[in-house]
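sorry for the late reply, my laptop died twice this morning and i had to redo everyting from scratch. anyway the thing you sent over, i finally got around to it. pasting the sequence first so we're on the same page, its 766 residues, then the predicted structure underneath. double check i copied it right bc i was rushing
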Amino acid sequence: MSAVETRPSAGRASRSARTGALGLDEAKLAVPEARTGSVPRTALVNRLRAAGSAVVTLGAPAGYGKTNVLAQWAGRDERPVAWLSIADDDDDPVSLCRSVAAALGRVASIDPAIFDSLGSRRRSAASALRALTSALSSFEQPLVLVLDDVHLLRSRECGRTVAALAERFPDGSTLVLAGRALPRIPSARLRVQGRLLEVGPAELALNKREIDLLVRRLDVELGAPELDELAERTEGWAAGVYLAAIPLKDAPGAEARTSEADRFLADYFDFEYLSALSAKDVSFLTRTSVLDSMCGSLCDAVLEAEGSARKLGSLSSSSLFVVPLDRPGGWFRYHHQFRSFLRAELERREPDLVAVLNWRAAAWCQANGAPEAAISYAHAAGDVDLLARLVMPRVLPAWYAGHDTAVETWLGWFDDTPGLERYPALALLGAWVHALRGRTAKAERWFDVAAGSEVDEAPPDGSASLRPWFALVRAAMCPDGAEQMRADAELALRELGPASRWRPTALFLRGAAQLLLGENERAEASMADAAEAAGSVRATPTQIAALAEWSLLAANRGDEARAEPLALQARALVDEHRLGGYARSAIAYAVSARRGLRTGDLELARADLENARALRPLLTHALPWYSVHASLELARVELALLDVPGARAWLSGAGEILRRRPRLGVLGVQLAELEVEAERVAEVQDERVSTLTAAELRLLPLLATHLSFREIGEHLCVSRNTVKTQAISVYRKLGVSSRSEAIERAVDLGLVGSAPVISVDFIRTG
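ok and here's the structure:
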C-alpha cells in the first residue's frame, strides 16, 4: 500500500484523532451545507466542475455567495472534497500546512509520520511545505482542496506557501482559493499553461432570473420594472439583494421600505468593512464617493493629497467593492450600493465638504478634457455660474451627437433657477432645444428671458454679439412669417463667427425660408450647402434634414438620379447615429417612404411611416414651418398608400398649426390641395380597393414613358396581358380612367418624379 492513497471511507474516530493530534477544530474541516433557501447556481457550478483547471480562484467581497457556490460544487463533484475554512491562527506557514494536511486527511490516507512531522514545533516553514507537497504528489486519485477565506492569510510566508501549492498541485486535482482578497500566486504562468480559472464578482453576481428566485423565496414578488431596478442597483450582489428585499415584505410604504433597506445595508457595510479600516482609509472612501468614476490623479486633486493611485489599486485588490473600469487598472468605480452608503456617511460626517469636493472634481475634469463630467460635478457643487459656463459650449455638440437626454438634463437644472436672465446665450440654446422637442410655451419663455436680459456677453462661438443667435432662433420659431424667417437666417449667416456650430443651421433655415417662398432652385442650393457644412462639424441632425430636403427638391423636379442617393444617405444617418427620436428625422422618414413607394418596397414605406408617427408629438407650432412641411409630406405617403384616415390625421395637425401661424408661404396652398386630394381618394375607395401592390408600384414609372404595354412587359419579364391587368388596377385605385391621368395623380402623390416623361433609355439602363 502506498504511503498516500485515496480512502473512500474512513472512520470518524480515526479522522478526529488525527485532527485532534494536530490541535485543530473539527468545524474548520467540515464541508458546509448549502444554505437553506439559497439560489441554486447550477450554471456556475457546472462551469467549475467542467473546467478541469488545477487552480480555481473565487475573489469577491463578502456577500457574493462564494462559500455557498463552493458548497453546491462540493455536493456535485465526483471527486472527494477536502475543505479548510481559514482562521486567524492559520496565518503562519507551518500552521497552515498542518491545517491543509488535516483537511486532506479527511478524504485520503496520509502516512501518520507526515502528521507527526507537521505537528512538531521545531518544524520549519520550508520543511513543512516539502512534506505537504510530497504528500500531494503521492496521491493516486484526484481530489478537490478548498481553502476558504484566504484573505485571512496576511503574512508573506503564507502567501508564498499558497503560491507553491498552486504551482505544484497535481493534474486532475483542483486547488480552490476563495476569499475577499487573494494571495499572490503565479497567475500569468498558470494562465499560459491553461491551469487557472479565475472567478470574480461578475461571474458570482446573480442574474435577473436568480434575483427573482431569491426574492420569491423571501415571499416577495416584483414586477419587471422593480426587478430591473433591483438588479441594476445591487449589480447581482446576493447580500445586497437579500438586504434590499427583506423590507419589501413588511414595511407599509415605499419610503419606509427604502429607509429600512438603507439601514440594513449601512449596518452591513459598517460591520463588515468600515469597522476594520483605519480612519485614513475610511476618509479616503467617503470623500471619493462623490466621484462617478475615479483615477489616481483625479482623487489626488479632489483630496488635495498624493498616492491615490496606489490606494485605489490596494482597495481594488482587497475586493472592497472597488470595480476596475479598464484593463490597465487606471480607472475605478464603487459598487452602486457601497457608493450610496459612503455618500450617506460623507453627508453625516462632513456635510460642509460635499460641495468643495465636487467643485474640485469639476475643475479637474474641465482641465483634463472631460467636459460632461465637469458639468455633472459643477451641478453637484451648486455653483450655478460655473455650471452655466460649462454647459453653454457643450449644448450644440452634445445635441448633434445624439446626447439629447444629457442636454435636457442640463437645461432642466436651469428651468426653475432664479437668475436665468444672467445667461442669455444659455437661454437661447434652451429655447432652441425646447422648440425642437415641440414645447412651444417653454421655447417662447426661454426666448423671452434671453430677449429681456440686460447682460451684454459675447457668445462662446466667436460671434461678435448675440444678435445672430437671436435671429437664428427667431427664424426657427418663425413667429412673423416666411419673409422675416429668410431675413433672420441671412442676418445670422452674415454675423455668426466663421467657426460657429450654428452656421449649418442658419444655411438650413435660409433654404427652408426659400422653399416656403417658392424659390425652389435657391432652396436646393442652400440645402446642399447646409448638408456639406453640417457634415464638416458633425451636426448630424441638421445634415439629415438638409439631405432629406435636398432629395425632396431634386425628386420634385424629376431628378431621381440625384434624389435617390440623398434619401438613402439621410435615412442611413438616422440609424447610424440613433437619431430616430429627433424631430429633424421626420422629413428623412418621409423621403425614405416615398423612395420605398417608387421602388415598390411597401414594407419600407410602412415602416418609415410608423417611425414618423412616433414623432408626431414633436411636430408642434414651436417650429411651425417644419411641422407643417413634414406633416404634408407624410400625408402624401399616406395617400399614396390609400390610407385616407392616416393622411387626414397629418393634414389636421398641419391645419391647426397654420391657423396659429398662417404666414408660411406655399404651405397653406399645399395643405388645401392635399385636403382636396384626400377627398378625391376617399370618393373612389370602396371595399374592393386596397393599397397599390409592389408590382403596381414598379409599373408606375414605366407608365410615364413612351413604352407600349408589350415593351413594358418585356422589360419586366411578364406578359402584355399582365401589364394591362395591373395598369387597369392602378387606374381604379387612383380613381382615374387613363394612363396620362394615372401619371398625373402619381406625380401629385410623389410616386414618380414630376418630369412629364421619363427617358426610355434611363428605364432600360437604370
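Residues 5-202 form a domain with the Rossmann fold fold (CATH 3.40.50.300).
thats about all i looked at so far, will dig more tmrw
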